[in-house]
Amino acid sequence: MESKSSLAPLPEENQNEDQQFDDPKPSSASAFSSKPIRPPTKTSSQMYSPLDWKGYFDQEDDVCIPDSNDVFHVYTAGKEGPVVFCLHGGGYSGLSFAISTRVIKEKARVVAMDLRGHGKSATENEIDMSIETLCSDVQAVVKTMYGDDPPAIVLVGHSMGGSMAVHVAAKKMLPSLAGLVVVDVVEGTAMASLIHMQKILSNRMQYFPTLEKAIEWNVRSGNLRNIESARISIPGTVKYDDAQQCYRHRARLAETEQYWKGWYEGLSDKFLSSPVPKLLLLAGTDRLDRALTIGQMQGKFQMIVVRHTGHAIQEDVPDEFAMLILNFISRNRIGPRGVEIPGIRRPSQPQA
Question: Helix/strand/coil (H, E, C) string of 91-110?
């Protein structure tokens, strides 16, 4: 004989709260008498919604270069200490350094620049991305911001920005340069990859109906592994196309191929000859070429391999990246007057 169950049927998940809890009788004190509240599930659009930079940087500014129509957009933070001047990679933006800035600005100042043809910067010729032009841009921005008495500067460059930082350092273009940090770029690997770059650029998704979809694609494709960082930085790498009524990549990298070789050729020797303390951050051990291997064995620079991260180390593990930068500053006693900054932990032993 069929027996009747004494259990009430569970409410459907799509019922609203009033439908689920419309019993007029007073609630029982029993812990089992009511349905526990289930945490809301985030939709895809919520998970990949853009985040404002204001929670990370202190302000944004346009730096107008005298005697030209070039305007470079910068994000800044911090009030004391040396200036950590950040140069992003090709196709990225200054917002690539947003989360790490939240930590760095407690001990130093940060300037993250949108390079020519990227982010919110506006220049007369966005396709002229020769290494000479890019380096002159950095020099002009520093000169415009700080005049003839710039503070101690630590140049931090990722990928293409790393090659810029090396060239600026090797050419002694910044008189107050006190340190050089290069993030995941070495000459050998970069030169070998150039023949594949056009294919990589053409195979990536070109158009996005919303900013959320652009962020989601960059995370799901593995370009970035940190969703929070992607939600901040990716909006700065795309622009709305009125004709196509969608978003597309801001940087026209495919049109700059003639300059790619100049970014990386001779990079290792220039890095080793730069007359300032140097740190090379790598995402893998297989990326050192012969010149760097010999230089590292001779103690000419500090090298740290950052595990469990992709190419964009500063975005994938921003807190670890920030501490590596601050430890580098402390180790080399870099400050406004070349002295150690109080409160920054110095590493107990050199990291290799």
Answer: CCCHHHHHHHHHHHCCCCEE
Residues taking part in catalysis: 159, 184, 311
Element (H, E) at 83: strand 83-87
Encoded tokens for 158: 């990722």
Residue 164 CB-density burial (10 A; 0-12 exposed, 13-18 middle, 19+ buried):
buried
What whole-number distance in Å separates Cα of residue 139 and Cα of residue 128? 16
- Global pTM reads 0.83
Angle, helices 160-170/257-264, rounded to nearest 10 degrees:
50
Q: Which CATH class is domain 47-331?
A: alpha beta
Mind listing the pLDDT tens digit for each residue in 210-267?
A: 999 999 999 999 999 999 999 999 999 999 999 999 999 999 999 999 999 999 999 9
Structure tokens at 211: 């900013």
* Cα–Cα dist 110/346, whole Å: 20
Q: What is the sign of the dihedral through the CA atoms of 158, 161, 164 and 165?
A: negative
Q: Show the tokens assigned to 78.
A: 């911090």
* Distance of alpha carbon 303 from alpha carbon 63, whole angstroms: 33
Query: Which residue has better confidence, 286 or 48?
Result: 48
Please say whether the beta carbons of 86 and 94 come within 8 A.
yes
Distance CA 76, CA 85 (A): 9
Closest by CA position to 323, among listed 102, 98, 56, 76: 102
Least confident of 32-41, 119-128, 152-161: 32-41
In the chain, where are the structural domains located?
47-331
Closest by Cα among 311, 259, 262, 321 to 284:
311
Q: DSSP assignment of 270-330, as one string?
A: HHHH-SS-EEEEES-GGG--HHHHHHHHTTSSEEEE--S--S-HHHHSHHHHHHHHHHHHH
